[in-house]
Amino acid sequence: MDNKSGMTIIVKTITRITVPTIILYGCYIIFHGHLTPGGGFAGGVIIALALLNVMIAFGREFTNNWLNINFLEKLESISATLFLVLGILGFLIGTAFLFNFISHGELFRLFSAGTIPILNIIIGIKVAMSLFLVVWVLAGLKLDEGESL
Amino acid sequence: MILPFFIIIPLLTAFLIAIVAGKKDNFANGLSIFSALLLLLGAIYNFFTQNQEVIVYKIGNWDAPIGINLVQDSLTIFMLIIVGLISLTSIIYSRQYIRNISTNWKYYALFMFMVTGMNGVIITGDLFNLFVFMEIALLSTYALVAYGGKAEEFEASFKYAIMGIVSSTFILVGIAITYSATSTLTLAKIAEQIPHINTKIVYLVSGIFLMGFGLKAAIIPFHTWLPDAHSSAPAPISAMLSGVLIKALGIYVLIRIVYNILGAPELFLKILLILGAVSIIIGVLLALAQWDMKRLLAYHSISQIGYIVLAMGIATPLGIIGAVYHLLNHALFKSLLFYNAGAVEMGLGTRNLKRMGNLTKIMPVASQTSMVASLSIAGIPPFNGFFSKIVIIIAAVQADKPIFAFVAVLGSILTLASFMKVQRYGFRAERMINKLRHRIGWGMNVAMITIAFLCLATSLLIIPGIREFTLDPIMSVIMNKTNYIQMVLGR
Amino acid sequence: MILYLLCFILLLVGLYGILTKRDLIKIILSASIMGYAANLLLILFAYRNGSIFPILRKGVEAMPMVDPLPQALVLTSIVIELGTTALLVALALKLFQKYKTYDITKIRKLSG
What we know:
The complex is a heterotrimer of chains A (149), B (491) and C (112).
Chain A: H1 9-31, H2 40-58, H3 60-66, H4 69-93, H5 116-140
Helix pairs in contact in A: 1-2, 2-3, 2-5, 4-5
Chain B: H1 5-20, H2 26-49, E1 55-58, E2 69-72, H3 74-97, H4 106-123, H5 127-145, H6 151-182, H7 187-193, H8 199-217, H9 225-232, H10 235-261, H11 266-288, H12 293-314, H13 317-348, H14 359-362, H15 364-378, H16 384-398, H17 402-427, H18 442-457, H19 467-479, H20 481-489
Antiparallel strand pairs in B: 1-2
Helix pairs in contact in B: 1-2, 1-4, 2-3, 3-4, 3-10, 3-13, 3-18, 4-5, 4-10, 5-6, 5-10, 6-8, 6-9, 7-20, 8-10, 9-10, 9-12, 10-12, 10-13, 11-12, 11-17, 12-13, 12-16, 12-17, 13-15, 13-16, 13-18, 13-19, 15-17, 15-18, 16-17
Chain C: H1 2-20, H2 24-46, H3 68-99
Helix pairs in contact in C: 1-2, 2-3
């Protein structure tokens, strides 16, 4: 990669080390959403911030090559659709919309609470993609362009 | 059992559009029309199968105080039919109109989010859930108002958004105080608790809610955002905003809060009466001075909302029927007028009444339907506006409030004057304009003709015999507070 | 009681900012402050003296807990505020593109 775009080599090196860890932490928060504080939204925000960290350190062009922005946009909508599909499944299998149709399992176990961890993961993806894309789009607006009056 | 699908269908449509649609809007438009049609048919199906009973749907099968419940009664179905009807015609109308701005699918996704929010507000039985759906509807409208991408539109949208956020924050504060006083957020439970809590807190909360939802409904001291936002938006969105959104988020919620939760306290009704009367007069006076057609229509929205609020304040059974009936009628003729204004703007490239003319020749459908809508809004028989206004006036006289009846009559006369101006200087002026910039396609014409026909057809609703199973059940739902509590809580 | 009053004052600070500031970004910040005041009020209403956070832990006996519902409500309202703030910032940037200023007194194309 070229070193011209983005920030200095120090920032880039540190970012390369920290970003995977931050994403891992975000995943931890999402997966333990039904046991500890946090959950889909908090974890999603952490993942989005990790991606934004890359954007700030390496510049927009590098991130554009690294991530497939179009795919992320689709992923955002797909995760929201999955949420609805899970809700309708609750309607079909169980009794009502968003009915918790998987076995609840044992308290304090990672694999427990039925559909709630799955919904947490879906929300996590959705929030991460949304927040990242919002800042991505806003950062891409060129203020000196556009017709003035 | 189909109640949650009023939220699921538009939400799913929006996301499907975002996933599948490519660059073009053909698919997005088709899918939106299909899902709006489904919503309308579902609402009509519910209307014929309800038997005037209250159906409660528990999301996730959790009971009322813990889970969120959806409630369906006559008023809900009535509002769902209005939303379905106007959104369906609006999407059909958009097909040609929005292509002049852009051919992007995002318009339809946002539109479907707006429908989701309004349907959610209408069917939910939970105060905070209502707030969330309201925010969904408002967020998408902030974006839709600015969809045209001109400087004025961004300005109007920013103003609208700031006003919306202020009122939403106050509503959130009101919800917080309600929760701390009653320890519940289910509307029926709150209604049950209201007689047992301190009157001062009830007054505080109802004042906050009157301000918050009054701002959404654009009652007069809170109206400043409406003319900008409603006149800057693209025409189908103006029709949705003026026709449905201010009613679903403002008037409907106020009806629920004043009648079903608070049980129509005397002080509140007096405030509503006065605010309604002031809205009627000031709205129509401001409208008289306008030469921009969409701005004029936006000011008339304030005035007509005043009629509904005034009729709500009368609080006799006849007054409630008038309010509900005028709500339906205003949704129809105001959206039709905005469709006409959009067609004229597309054809001539101007909204200024002084630059229109000869429209009966070159734009026959738009000008004839605008005649129907003008007569309807001005209250000329046999169009629907006449019947709802006469019901409101009779109700005011019967309730021994002659001043307010006079205000309603005066407002109606001034409305007639203002629409004579629209017809005389706008549609039927003698300025010879022979060329249209764009031909008006079938989609826009179908939307206008459908609504114009309905403007006539809905006059039948007030006839004794039809009234018994259309408007009367709604009135009894609104007037009977204890019945609502018992039905929703299942006791 | 004093806490509730302070909360209310924070709300009024936000409202004052919206009404008097001329800069678009400052108006957005003031709107956020109003939102924070409302959230803070909700959290305050949920607080019970001498109770702990509402999370069950393994091996720890259940103690008196604060009301968890307002905390869930606050989370939802934060998400909503995030959305509205993002939209407002986008609108402000677009307005800057058109008018080359953030000053609201110079952004006047609409009459009235």
